[in-house]
Every structure is written in C-alpha cells, then in structure tokens.
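haha ok so turns out i had the wrong file open the whole time. this is the CORRECT one, sorry everyone. sequence first:
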Amino acid sequence: RESMERRVICLVVALVASVASVFVSGQPHARASDLYYTDITPVTDDTRYTTLNPDVTPTEMNKVKHSKGNVVFSSGERKSGDRLIVNHYDDESFTSAVDIEVLMSYPAGASTGVTLTCIEVYVDMSADDAGGYITQGGIGQTNAEILLTANYTRSFVYESFLYGY
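then structure:
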C-alpha cells in the first residue's frame, strides 16, 4: 500500500509540475502537432503551388549549399530567450526523378502561434538544387507558411526547426 501511495504522489507531482510549466513562462507551449505539413508530393506545372496560388508572391529564404544535394534554408536568427517551437522530419524516395513540393504551415488549425525568431530547414536530395520560400507570415509574426521545392529528384529528405518566444 505504501508503494501505491508513493506512485500516486509522484504522478500528482509530475502533473502539477507539467501544468505549472505552462503558466510559468506566460507563453503558449507549441508541440509538433502545431505544424501542418503536406507529404513530399510530385508536382506538374499544373499542380505547382505558384500555379494554384497566382496571387501569392513567395519570399525566397536564405540558402547555403554545403555539397551536391545538401542545402540549408533559413530566415531570421536565434535570439536570447527563444526556444525550439517545432521540429519536423520527413523523407521520400521515388523510382524515377520527379519535381516535388512540400508545404508547411505554422501554427496548424486554429491554434495561436508564438512569435517566430528563426526558421531553419535542412534538405538532402539527389537533385542539384532546391528552393525554400516563405509564402505567408514569417519572422516576427505568429504564423508562417513554408514552401520547399526541388526539380528532377529521386529522393528528398528535410528537417525543419522553428524557434520563437
């Protein structure tokens, strides 16, 4: 019986600590589920984001090529006091080379986002180059929509990191 009481007390303390951590910072705590994302999807000229959304003018993210097929896209910079809000990874392989797109949106649904300070996306692919764009929101905003593109690739792997406060 003493062991059961200890377990209950530990569970209650853990629950109180996790609830308290939400209120201590005064900021909402985002989760990976706060990011909406599409699959890594093959596209044609007719199904590309820019064709389907002609009124949107994508803003190109900073791009650094590290080696063939390895690119880092970024916007903003880390700030004192910010934290990792969302981390997301996905990968896909294709039997033949295709043009692909991925669309990510923060926050997902009707949730309230935190102010974004930095967005980083690491990409590895069989293609020589890729594109990374912000199509809505961005740094200093509480929302962002990020479009990744690559042409003529057989594989596409990315990991995204969104920071804010």
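The first helix runs from residue 2 to 24.
again sry for the mixup
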